[in-house]
Design a protein that fits this description.
This protein is an alpha/beta fold and about 400 residues long. It contains 15 helices and 11 strands. About 45% of the residues lie in helices and about 15% in strands.
Length: about 400
C-alpha cells in the first residue's frame, strides 16, 4: 500500500490481519519514557510519535501513584464497600519487620501478613492487590471458600463518581486520538491474575488441582466484578479492550483447568467487547504452546506479549502457524534481555527474525513487555531497534 496511514489505521489493519503501508511498532509499555514525562500519558503518546513509533492512548489513565491499593491493575479505581473497615499495623518479630492488614466486612474478616524485604516499595502500607506482596505474603488474603463472602465487599461496582470521571476523560481522549491519529485502548480486564494476587501463586496452583470448584467459584466472583467494570469502559468508543493474563499460561495452570475454568469466562468477555464493536486484546507472554488451541477458540483479536526469550513454551513459528490466520500478533522481541542489555547486531537480528517470522501482515512489533531501565545504553539500543524496523519497510 503506497498511501501513508495514520498510526490508528495501521494498528487496526494489523489487528485485522489486513494490508497496511508497513508493519507498526507500538510498545506495550514504556516505563523509562513514561517517567521522563512524569506519568503524563498524553505526553507519552506524543513522545512516542516523535520517535517515529506507533502509539496508543489507554483509558482510564490513572498513574500508579493514583492507585495505591492496586498499583499493578490499570483502569478504573478499585473501590470497597462503605461497610468495610481496614486496620494496618507493623510488628517486629526476631529482627523481621512484618506488616499486618485486616479487612472487616459484614461477610467476615480477611487478613494478610507480609514480610518486608529491602525492596518493598510501599512503606508501612499493604495494598489490596500487588505483585510485590505475593512472594512476601506469609498469609495470603484469600485461602478458603468462606473468604468469598467477605471478598464480595471488596469488589464493588464502579461508583457513579468514577463513571462520570471516566466519561469526562473519554471526551478528552477521543479528541486527542482524533487529532493525533492514534488508537484508543481501554481496560484492564482481569481474571486469573487477580486470583493469584489474592491467593498467592504457589497456593493457587495447588488449589487448581486440589480444590478446582473453589477456584472456579473465585474466578466467577472476579468475572462478575470485572464484567461490571468492562461495561463502563466499553461505553466509550474504544478501538481495543485489553485484558491482562500474565498468569494464565501453562507456567501457572494446566490446559485442562484453562479449558474448564478460564476459557468459558474469557469467551463471554470477548463476546461482550464484540457486542460493543470493540477489538479484544489478550496479554499472555509465557506458557503459550499448550494453550494455543484454547486461545484460538476464545475468539480474541490480538495476542499481546509474544516473548521469544523470557517466555517459556514460546515458539514464534508455531504461534504464527497456529494463530496467525485468526488473530493479530503483538511483540516479538524481548525488552529486558535483548533491548535493554543486548549488543547492536543482536538487537537488529531479533527485529529481523520477529518480522520474518510473525509478519508482515497481522503483526505489531514491540519489546516485551516493557522498557524500564533509563540508561544511555537503553536509548542507544532503542535507536538500533527503531532503525532496523524502519529498514524493513523502507527497503
Amino acid at each position: 500500500m503506497s498511501l501513508r496511514m495514520t498510526s490508528r489505521q495501521r494498528m487496526l489493519a494489523a489487528i485485522d490481519r489486513e494490508v497496511s503501508d508497513h508493519i507498526p511498532c507500538a510498545f506495550m509499555s514504556f516505563t523509562a519514557l513514561r517517567k521522563r514525562v512524569q506519568e503524563d500519558f498524553y505526553a507519552l503518546c506524543k513522545a512516542e510519535l516523535q520517535m517515529g513509533l506507533d502509539s496508543f492512548l489507554f483509558v482510564p489513565s490513572l498513574s500508579r501513584l493514583q492507585r495505591p491499593e492496586h498499583p499493578e491493575l490499570r483502569g478504573l479505581p478499585v473501590r470497597f464497600s462503605p461497610q468495610v473497615e481496614m486496620q494496618e499495623w507493623v510488628e517486629q518479630l526476631k529482627g523481621q519487620r512484618l506488616l499486618h492488614k485486616e479487612y472487616h466486612t459484614p461477610g467476615g474478616v480477611l487478613t494478610t501478613r507480609v514480610k518486608v524485604s529491602e525492596d518493598w516499595p510501599h512503606g508501612d502500607h499493604v495494598p489490596f492487590i500487588d505483585d510485590y506482596q505475593v512472594p512476601r505474603a506469609i498469609r495470603p488474603l484469600v485461602s478458603q471458600r468462606k473468604d468469598l463472602d467477605a471478598l464480595h465487599y471488596l469488589l464493588t461496582p464502579p461508583s457513579r463518581e468514577d463513571i462520570l470521571a471516566y466519561q469526562a476523560e473519554v471526551e478528552t481522549a477521543c479528541a486527542f486520538c482524533e487529532e493525533h491519529g492514534v488508537l484508543l485502548a481501554g481496560g484492564w480486564g482481569i481474571g486469573m491474575d487477580m486470583a493469584n494476587w489474592l491467593c498467592g501463586m504457589q497456593e493457587l496452583m495447588a488449589l487448581t488441582i486440589l480444590d478446582e470448584p473453589f477456584v472456579s467459584d473465585l474466578l466467577d466472583v472476579i468475572y462478575q466484578w470485572n464484567r461490571q467494570r468492562m461495561e463502563v469502559v466499553l461505553s466509550a468508543p474504544l478501538d481495543l479492550y485489553i485484558k491482562r493474563a500474565w498468569y494464565e499460561g501453562c507456567d501457572f495452570v494446566t490446559p485442562r483447568f484453562y479449558g474448564r475454568a478460564i476459557l468459558p469466562l474469557l469467551k463471554k468477555e470477548v463476546e461482550l467487547a464484540h457486542e460493543h464493536g470493540v477489538k479484544f486484546g489478550y496479554i499472555l507472554t509465557s506458557g503459550l504452546l499448550p494453550m494455543l488451541g484454547l486461545i484460538r477458540e476464545a475468539g480474541i483479536d490480538v495476542l499481546i506479549g509474544i516473548d521469544p526469550i523470557q517466555g517459556t513454551y514460546v515458539d514464534l513459528p508455531v504461534i504464527k502457524q497456529k494463530l496467525g490466520d485468526r488473530m493479530g500478533l503483538w511483540g516479538g522481541v524481548s525488552g529486558a534481555v535483548t533491548v535493554e542489555l543486548g549488543a547492536e547486531e543482536e538487537i537488529r537480528q531479533a527485529v529481523r527474525s520477529a518480522i520474518q517470522t510473525l509478519g508482515p501482515g497481522g503483526f505489531v512489533l514491540s519489546p516485551v513487555d516493557n522498557i524500564t531501565i533509563d540508561t544511555p545504553q537503553t536509548w542507544r539500543n532503542l535507536e538500533f531497534l527503531i532503525d532496523e524496523w524502519k529498514r524493513s519497510w523502507r527497503n
